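Exercise 7 asks you to align residues with C-alpha cells for two separate proteins.
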Amino acid sequence: MNELLLFRILFAISFFSVLIVTASYRYKAQKGQQFSLEEEGKSVWIPLRLLGLIIWFYPLFVIFAPNLVGWSLIDLPAPLRWLGFITAVLMIPFVIWSQNSLGNNVTTTVITREEHQLVTHGPYKWIRNPLYTAGIIAFSSWTLLSGSWFMGIVAIVGLVFILIRLPNEEAHLEQRFGEDYRAYKARTGRFLPKLL
C-alpha cells in the first residue's frame, strides 16, 4: 500500500467517525423540531450553510475521487500528516463528551428550544463552545492529513462566519438564562478554558 492511499484511508476513518457521531446526536436532538433561521440573518446563515455543504461533501471527493480535487492537494511531509491523524483521532472522544454533555440542547441556529437548558457540566464547565473548538481542531487536523489547502481555507472562512454569529448566539442565551448565563460567561472561555 502506498503512503498516499494509507493517509486517505486514515482520513476516511477519522472523518466518518466524527460525521457519524455528530450526525447521530444532531438527528436525535432535531427529531420533530423546526427552527427558524431568520434570527441569524441571511448574510450569516446562507454562507454558513453553503460552507457547511462544501466542508462536509468535499472530503468525500478527497476520499473516493482524489483525481477530481487534485488541484487542491499538496504533498505534505508524512510527519505532518501523522500529526493530523493523531490529533483528529484524539478529537473523537472530545466530540462524544461534548455531545453527551449537550444532549438535546444542540440546534442548527441561534434560537434556543423551549426546553433548552444551560449546560455547565462536562467540557462546558470550562468552555462555552467545545463543539466549535473540536471543529476547529478536527478540520485543522484533516487539512494536514489530507494535504488539502482548500479544506483549510474553507474551514477558516467558516470560522470567520461562526465568530460573526457567536455574539447573536450568546445574546439569545443571555436573554433566555439571564444572570445565570452572565455568570457562566464570566467564568468560562469561548473556545479554550480561561487561564485567569
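Second protein for Exercise 7:
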Amino acid sequence: MRWIWIDRILELERGKRCVAIKNVSAAEDVLHDHFEATSDHPAIPVLPNPLIIEGMAQTAGILVGHANDFQEKVILAKIGRAEFQTAAIPGFTLRYEAMIERIDPSGAATTGTVHRVDPSNGKSVQLAEISLMFSHIDQNRAGLEFPEENFVFTDQFMDLIRRSGFEVPDL
C-alpha cells in the first residue's frame, strides 16, 4: 500500500505551481511515536519531518508530472534543502506550495514552502522550506529496466487529483 501524505490539491498551474493540503489528525498512529511522555513532561505528538518532506515530494511530483501530462515516471532524486522552523502537530492543516524552478527532459528542480495553518482562526506560520530534484526515469535509465506502466502516478494519485477537481489524462 502506498501512503499519500496530502489530502487535497487546491491549485495546479501547469508547469508553474501546485498547492496541496494535509490535515494532521491525532488518529494517525505515526504521530504518537514522537515524543512520548516522561516523568517530566506529557506526550507531544508530532508529524515526523521526513513525512512532511514526503508530502512536499508528492505535491511537487504531481506538479512535475502534470507539466508533461503524466507521460514520464517522475521520481525524487535529491533533497537539496529542507529547513524546518516549527513542528506539525495534530489539529492543524499543512499547506504545501511547490514551484518549478527548472524542468527539462531529464528532470526538474522545485522549491516550496510548507505552512502550518490553525483552522480555528486561519492563522498561518511557515513550517519549512524544501528544495527537491526529480528525475524522469524513462529518460535516465542508464541500462536499468523499469516496468512499462507508470508505477509512480498510480490510480491513488490520479484519483486524488480528480477528486480535487482537476482533469488528468487516462494513462
